[in-house]
Specification:
single chain; about 500 residues; mainly alpha; two-stranded antiparallel sheet; about 60% helix; about 5% strand; binds iron/sulfur cluster
């Protein structure tokens, strides 16, 4: 095993080369050891959701899923990477499905054409965002439990029928969210020594070898040509498969993978993937729509507009504007002006949009982070009385729950923390915009620099607009979903 510091002659963090964590992650059953506890937690969540108290702040399903799971996922993405996919409990039924497929279904079928893109995930994400508001999922332990059950069933059925990790790569909305978030993460699975791959003839990291039972990457990410974190579930299959111990969990500059658009194994070029562009649009503007839907001015606007008293048409209007009209208008305007000021007349407006679109990912993630951190920080300690109550209901413990537990930080810390995440995201997006403009236009002379600035300006203006929208949303009276406090002004 190589040590951190030997890679390319300069010091790079490689978690797989660290003494304790590296040894653990190299262990063949490390992932199972992470998944099983989460499977137990998921089982308890489903049980309490179906049979426990149907008051959201008292139930493990609603508190565990909508406060803790979401908060911890975004914090893990910020601090490390796609750790949830690494420990995902839905992988266990998936793995059973794969075993059935390989044993009884002649290896299964290839992914059908209809599922060979991110479009199914885009549709599912929109349906999920709409359903979350329409059915008030955060307030329904019963529905939350059924969503978890549906997830297990879907992962099992899809991966029993089809090869190629179809569920993770093409369908799972949580996975797509994690893929987008991990674009700004500080760690990635990457090769340690490119020259070792150049001399490698077996390519075990991409194919399954019956002799060793080592499984290459199911998501079709071939290490020598893998770039960044998109589609990588941190499953470590490639790490176990590589006979040269040439794959690490390596530190990198967050957002740097957005600055260029090389051909990526298993993905292609970002700028040529319309489905990926749609995914980024939904997750970027969805971050704002999702937070907007829980602030008081939106409820007041609904009451003020005639004909939208019912929830379904009102949400339909919000989603149509938030995920359709606004993105199309803002992105095409930014693309059009950027193309003109940058002197890039040879490309269409939408080709220009797709060049810069990924640069919005850090800001989008900043908005999700600010939003989910708000819920987590206002309700994290609720888990203590919820678990006490759950154990008391089972007759395991007689401790009286104290329902006064809730916030993790004082209320006046919330907005500074949210604002910090938003500014951090905006900074990451601004850097990415400049780097993309530089790459396309070059920066040799004064005229080139002027064009770089011109091409970047409309996108920087859009980032500022989204930043201002995010800050405004976070200053509004907001429902404190999943806690005993119904609303707050902070
Ligand atoms: S990562 Fe390992 S198995 Fe894959 S090409 Fe490189 S050396 Fe070969
Ligand atoms: S096998 Fe594929 S998905 Fe898993 S960690 Fe390696 S590159 Fe990522």
């Amino acid at each position: 095993m190589i040590a951190a510091g030997q890679v390319y002659g300069r010091r790079r963090l490689d978690l797989l080369a660290r003494p304790v964590i590296g040894r653990f992650l190299h262990w063949r059953h490390a992932r199972t050891a992470l998944q099983v506890p989460l499977l137990v937690v998921a089982g308890l969540v489903v049980f309490d959701g179906l049979f426990g108290p149907q008051l959201a702040p008292k139930n493990l399903a609603t508190v565990g899923v909508w406060l803790h799971y979401r908060g911890l996922v975004v914090l893990a993405l910020l601090a490390a990477g796609n750790l949830f996919c690494m420990a995902c409990p839905f992988m266990l039924p998936r793995r059973f499905g794969r075993w059935l497929r390989e044993r009884w279904l002649a290896g299964g079928r290839p992914t059908p054409a209809l599922l060979r893109s991110k479009w199914p995930a885009v549709v599912l994400l929109v349906v999920f965002f709409y359903s979350y508001e329409y059915f008030a999922l955060w307030a329904s332990p019963w529905l939350t439990a059924w969503i978890a059950v549906g997830y297990f069933v879907a992962a099992f059925v899809v991966d029993t029928l089809f090869r190629g990790a179809t569920f993770c790569k093409r369908i799972c909305p949580l996975g797509q969210f994690n893929f987008l978030g991990s674009l700004v993460s500080p760690l990635e699975i990457a090769v340690r020594r490119p020259e070792t791959c150049a001399a490698c003839r077996t390519r075990d990291c991409i194919q399954t070898r019956a002799a060793t039972r080592a499984r290459g990457c199911e998501l079709a990410l071939f290490q020598p040509r893998k770039v960044g974190n998109m589609d990588c579930t941190f499953c470590l299959d490639c790490v176990h498969a590589c006979p040269h111990d040439n794959i690490g969990l390596i530190g990198r500059l967050p957002t740097a993978e957005l600055w260029s658009d090389p051909y990526r194994s298993g993905i292609g070029r970002f700028s040529q993937r319309r489905d990926l562009a749609a995914l980024v649009v939904v997750l970027t503007f969805g971050a704002f729509v999702n937070a907007l839907a829980m602030i008081r001015p939106i409820y007041e606007l609904q009451g003020w507009l005639p004909g939208f008293a019912a929830r379904a048409p009102w949400l339909g209007l919000v989603f149509l504007i938030g995920l359709g009209v606004l993105p199309v208008t803002l992105l095409s305007a930014a693309g059009f002006v950027s193309r003109g000021l940058g002197g890039e007349t040879g490309v269409t407006v939408w080709a220009s949009v797709r060049r810069y679109l990924l640069a919005l990912a850090p800001l989008a993630f900043g908005m999700w982070l600010a939003h989910y951190a708000f819920h987590f920080l206002t309700g994290a300690l609720t888990i203590t009385p919820v678990v006490q109550s759950f154990l008391a209901d089972l007759g395991v413990s007689g401790v009286q729950p104290y329902w006064g537990w809730g916030p993790l930080v004082p209320a006046d810390w919330l907005f500074p923390i949210e604002a910090f995440f938003l500014y951090l995201g905006a900074f990451g997006s601004a850097v990415a915009v400049f780097q993309i403009a530089r790459r396309h236009i070059g920066e040799g002379n004064l005229e080139a620099r002027r064009r770089v600035l011109g091409a970047a300006l409309p996108w920087l203006a859009l980032c500022l607009l989204l930043l201002a929208a995010g800050l405004w949303i976070m200053t509004q009276p907001m429902e404190m979903r999943g806690t005993f406090v119904l609303s707050s002004v902070h």
